[in-house]
Specification:
two-stranded antiparallel ribbon, 65 residues, single chain, 2 strands, mainly alpha, 6% strand
Amino acid sequence: MTELLPVIDTERLRLRALETTDADDMAANMTPAVTRWLSSWPSPLSREAALARIERSRAAIQAGG
């Protein structure tokens, strides 16, 4: 997939834009313990909802958002 934003690598971390292939992992990680700190993320989060959020996010980046 084409990178929308620069990838930032540090000694311990890699930051990059989400990709549609991240949907399953993203959905699995949105547990109540995580989402209680994220005001707009539901738990549970289905794969389809994760995929829709990723697609909206990528479209916003492409549009300059």
